[in-house]
Amino acid sequence: MPTYDEALTLFHEWTQSDSLRRHAYAVEAAMEHYANLLDQDVALWRITGLLHDLDYERHPTRDKHPFVGVALLKSLGYPAEVTDAILGHAAYSGTPRMSLMAKALFACDELAGFITAVAYVRPTKMTGMKVKSVRKKLKDKAFAAAVSREEILQGAEEFGVELSTHIANVITGMQLRAARLQLQ
C-alpha cells in the first residue's frame, strides 16, 4: 500500500485545478474525521477521500471517471478496499458499496461539496457553521443546484447516520482542516 505522501504526490500530478484539489481535501477531511470517530484506519480513509476524483480533471465523463483512476491505482498497488470504494462513490458505476469506508465515501462526497458552497457564501466561512443553516440551504434547490440532494440523503441513509448528525460530522471534519481548504 502506498503511503499518504505518495498518494498526495500522485494526486497533485493528476489534479491541477485548485477547486478540485480543495474538493478532494474536503472529502479527505470528512473521511479522516469519520475514521477517528469509528476507530478505523485513518490513513486508509484519508487516502481514499483524497484520491476519489483522481482522474476527474483528465477524464470527466461517465465512461472514464472513476474507471481510469481506479485502473491506475490498482497498477500502483492500492488495495481493493480503496479501489472498490472509489468505484462505488460514482452511483452510475454499478459497484455496490459494501464496506463501511465505501459507504462513508459516498456519504461524504456530495455533502462536502455542498458544505463548501455554503461556506463560500458565509462571511465567516467554516467558522461557526451550524447544521440548521446547511439544512436550510439544502431546501433551496437553486443554491448549488449541481449538487445532488438525492445522493446526500441516500448517502446518509446507506451509511446509517441520521442526516443532521452526518452534516454535523462533515462540518466538524472540514472545520479541522479549514486552513487547507481555504475556508477560514
From the structure above, extract its key features.
globular, 10 helices, mainly alpha, Hypothetical protein af1432, 184 residues
- The low-confidence parts are none
Global Rg: 15 Å
**End-to-end gap:** 33 Å
Which structural class should the secondary elements be placed in? mainly alpha
Number of strands: 0
CATH-scheme architecture: Orthogonal Bundle
Describe, in plain words, how this protein is organized in 3D:
This protein has helices at 4-14, 18-37, 42-51, 67-75, 80-89, 100-120, 131-139, 149-159, 163-176, 178-181. With 184 residues, it is mostly helical. It has a single domain (4-181), classed as Hypothetical protein af1432, CATH 1.10.3210. Helix 2 runs antiparallel to helix 3 (42-51), helix 2 crosses helix 6 and helix 5 (80-89) crosses helix 6. The longest helix has 21 residues, at 100-120.
SSE order and pairing:
Elements: H1 4-14, H2 18-37, H3 42-51, H4 67-75, H5 80-89, H6 100-120, H7 131-139, H8 149-159, H9 163-176, H10 178-181
Helix pairs in contact: 1-3, 2-3, 2-6, 2-9, 3-5, 4-5, 5-6, 6-8, 6-9, 7-9
Quickly describe the structure.
The protein has a single domain, classed as Hypothetical protein af1432. Helix content is 65%, strand content 0%.
